[in-house]
Amino acid sequence: MSIFMRNLKKNKVIMLAAVISISAGFLIIFIGMTLYRNRLNDLGAEDSLKYNTYKYHYALISEEADAPFWEAIYEGALESGKGREIYVERIGSSLPSAYPLRDLMKMAIASKVDGIIIEPNGEEEIIDLINIADEAGIPVITVLNDEPNSKRKSFVGVNSYNQGQIYGKQVLEVVKAGKKNVTILLNSDSHNAGMNVIDSGIREMVAGNGVWVNSVNVNTQSTFSSEEDIRNIIKDSQNPTEVLVCLTAIDTRCAYQAVVDYNKVGVINIIGYYDSDLILSAIQKGIIHSTMSIDAKQMGAYCVEALNEYMETGQVSDYFSVDVYAINNDNIDDYIRAQSEGEEKKD
Hints:
Radius of gyration: 29 Å
Strand content: 15-25%
CATH topology of the largest domain: Rossmann fold
Number of domains: 3
Low-confidence stretches: 27-40, 45-49
Number of strands: 12
Strand order of the largest sheet: 2-1-3-4-5-11
CATH architecture of the largest domain: 3-Layer(aba) Sandwich
Shape: globular
């Protein structure tokens, strides 16, 4: 046999082997994909791989995006968006590092979302960014804290004066037990007008009852900084406080822990904010006297409704009010029962 024929035969063998290998490879891939698809069907996960389309994309922005209260606001906003072809995204949540509010706002604008829901912090740059978003055709809704001098379209929040009056009534209940020295925890951010109005409402309500009220600015740069400030207040033996009024969920949680750690239960009464499981349990145990509850889910839903109304009609109400009420030992059992029944109906 000539060299040419031997080489030709050898090449045919090599080509046949290559074809068989490639065919076998495709067969393995096909079988693997079929098995994977069947596995997804068994797990009910196939639908999760389908892309959803939305009419509007809204951004929710807060410096406390991962706090329980904001989790509830987001849940309410997300639920309200379902069925309306609206997707609500939390900008800044679960990031490896914390970003200033102005950077989160810039991210939302750069993403060209259809609407923004934000809790302003009083900085002039935030006002400017709200105006920039509006000029870019992105309507902005403020929540909890307002910026009436900006181009925001609507504000969703609570009446701060009424909230202060409700806080004041809870302080008077504690005063009946002989407590007189009251400390109100405010944010170190002096631009927070809402807290200042709450402070005024408390003072007006307790005036003439022999109560000494002291307002203290708490460092809000981080949970650790606010916790340190609150612990220093509780440890102060020169001017000991008897009633601690907390206007945020984080301060309430820090105050609760500090009172327990320093054996001040019963010595210092806490009037808190928000209705987390921890806070409700502390009320039942008598560690926290009472707490202010805001329907956070309703607040989130109102934000989406306000944005959607503006997107659809070009107009929207200037203010959406969310109710606030006190939970204490007198009504906590009824409150928890109502919450449980509501969850059961939802399921």
